[in-house]
Structure formats: C-alpha cells, structure tokens
C-alpha cells in the first residue's frame, strides 16, 4: 500500500478519471476526499471506496468558487488531519464551434472550471502541504492542451494553461518538497466523449486516432496519476505526462 498514511483530495471524483483515481488511491491506503458538483455520483464513489474497507468522504464543491475550495481544503483537514495529495481533475468541454462563434459566457465558464479551478486548488492546498512537510499535486491537462484542434478554442486554451501553471508551481514550491505535475489524457472513455460517440461519421476515426488504435480507460489514466502521486515519482516535478496511446505523435 504505497499511499498508506496519505490524505488526498480528488476533484471531479464523481465519475470517469476522478472516480478511478479516488478508488485507486484508497486501495493504496490513502484517505480520500472526493469532490464533485454532483452529490449523487460523488457519494457513489465514496460508497465504492468504503465497501471494501477504504476511507473516504464526499465534499460538494464548485472548483471555480474560491470560498468553496477553501472549505474543501479545511473540511478535508478537519476530517483526516492533513493534506498530502491534490488531484485537480474537475473539468468540462464546450460546444464544437468556430472561435468567433463561441460565446463569451461559454468561454468564461470553461476557463473558470478548467484553469481557474486548478489555480484555486494550488493556491489553497500548498500552504497546508507546507505544514505537512511536502506533497504532490497532479493537474489534469489534455492532449488538446499540447496540440490544437478545430472548434475547441476555450478547451485548448484552458488545458494549455494548465501545463504552464503546473510548471510555474513546480518551480515556486519545489524547495518545500512539493511536486507539481500534470497528465495529458487523450481520448478516454468518459462522459466528455459521449457526443463524439454519437457521430457515426467521425467516431470510427476519433476512436483509433493514436498509435495504439483504441481509446483509453479511466483506470489507465488513474494508474499514471497514482504514479505521479507516489514516492516512485520522487524526482519528477514540472512534467506533463501524456496518457494518450500515442495520440500526440499521431
């Protein structure tokens, strides 16, 4: 159990990559605070952790709201006694439209959740990690944070911002034994790709557009996040790990 004694927060933990990560952390001995806007799915994740004997709580949080993020950190520490790992995973997509047709409201909403949410997590978690003698932060970027794609202006920009924000935090807080890394998933079998699956013309190409010729699973991404959170990655910080089946090279 490589995370025994560790306390972790996973945002967007109600489904997909976040759920798989929370479950994996708990199996490795961590106490996990599951954060999501959806109380039903968040509590389902907690139940999946608790049934085999793991420790977890659900904290409903809107990651773009600074007061709610502060409360997330505070409630986690009050319950478990500290904070060692933060996974800034909560994120959304947006309408597939040309940049000039994307509304300001939708642009702001995507940037607020995908980028500001990561910033707020870092801002309020790091002071507590310093008290614990260090920690690990893993931010979810995307393959589309490393390469452009038509009709994804806000998503591309938000996920690219995560990559540089990760590097910035790594540089600033490495001296406190806080490692900050990112993952860049490709096409993963989560709710965010449901619209693509319904496109009979494009889905056969999208589903195989990488070196391995298939989409990934949330568990495969969770494995990468777990590695970056563990002491196995003790000399890795400021990195963005592609978990995309070779999508970046395709």
Spell out the key features of this protein.
250 residues; alpha/beta; Rossmann fold; seven-stranded parallel β-sheet; 8 helices; globular
SSE layout and pairing:
Elements lengths: L6 E5 L4 H12 L3 E6 L2 H12 L4 E6 L5 H15 L4 E4 L15 H28 L3 E6 L12 H21 L4 E8 L8 H4 L5 H4 L11 H12 L10 E4 L7
Parallel strand pairs: 1-2, 1-4, 2-3, 4-5, 5-6, 6-7
Helix pairs in contact: 1-2, 1-8, 3-4, 4-5
Explain what the structure shows.
This protein has 250 residues and is of the alpha/beta class. It has 8 helices and 7 strands, in the order βαβαβαβαβαβαααβ. A 7-stranded parallel beta sheet has the order 3-2-1-4-5-6-7, with helices on both faces. α3 packs parallel to α4. The longest helix has 28 residues. The termini are far apart. The mean pLDDT is 97.
Beta fraction: 15-25%
The helix count comes to 8
Note the gap between the termini.
Answer: 36 Å
Q: Which assembly state applies to the chains in this document?
A: single chain
- What is the fold named in CATH at topology level? Rossmann fold
Quote the average pLDDT: 97
Helix content: 40-55%
CATH superfamily placement: NAD(P)-binding Rossmann-like Domain
Structural class: alpha/beta
For the record, the count of structural domains works out to: 1
> Shape, please?
globular
Low-pLDDT sequence parts? none
- Using only C-alpha atoms, the radius of gyration works out to 17 Å
Please sum up the structure shown.
The protein has 250 residues and is of the alpha/beta class.
């Amino acid at each position: 159990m490589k995370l025994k004694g560790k306390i972790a927060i996973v945002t967007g933990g109600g489904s997909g990559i976040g759920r798989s990560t929370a479950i994996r952390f708990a199996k490795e001995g961590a106490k996990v605070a599951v954060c999501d806007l959806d109380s039903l799915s968040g509590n389902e994740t907690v139940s999946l952790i608790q049934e085999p004997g793991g420790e977890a709580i659900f904290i409903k949080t809107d990651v773009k709201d600074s007061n709610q993020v502060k409360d997330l950190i505070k409630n986690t520490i009050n319950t478990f006694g500290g904070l060692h790992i933060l996974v800034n995973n909560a994120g959304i997509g947006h309408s597939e439209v040309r940049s000039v047709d994307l509304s300001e409201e939708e642009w702001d909403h995507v940037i607020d959740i995908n980028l500001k949410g990561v910033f707020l997590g870092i801002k309020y978690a790091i002071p507590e990690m310093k008290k614990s003698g260090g920690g690990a932060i893993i931010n979810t970027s995307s393959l589309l944070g490393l390469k452009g794609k038509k009709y994804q202006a806000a998503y591309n920009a938000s996920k690219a911002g995560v990559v540089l924000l990760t590097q910035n935090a790594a540089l600033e807080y490495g001296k406190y034994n806080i490692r900050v890394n990112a993952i860049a998933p490709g096409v993963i079998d989560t709710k965010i790709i449901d619209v693509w699956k319904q496109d009979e013309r494009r889905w056969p190409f999208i589903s195989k557009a990488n070196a391995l010729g298939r989409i990934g699973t949330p568990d495969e991404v969770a494995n990468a996040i777990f590695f970056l959170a563990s002491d196995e990655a003790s000399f890795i910080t400021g990195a963005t790990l592609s978990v995309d089946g070779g999508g970046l090279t395709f």
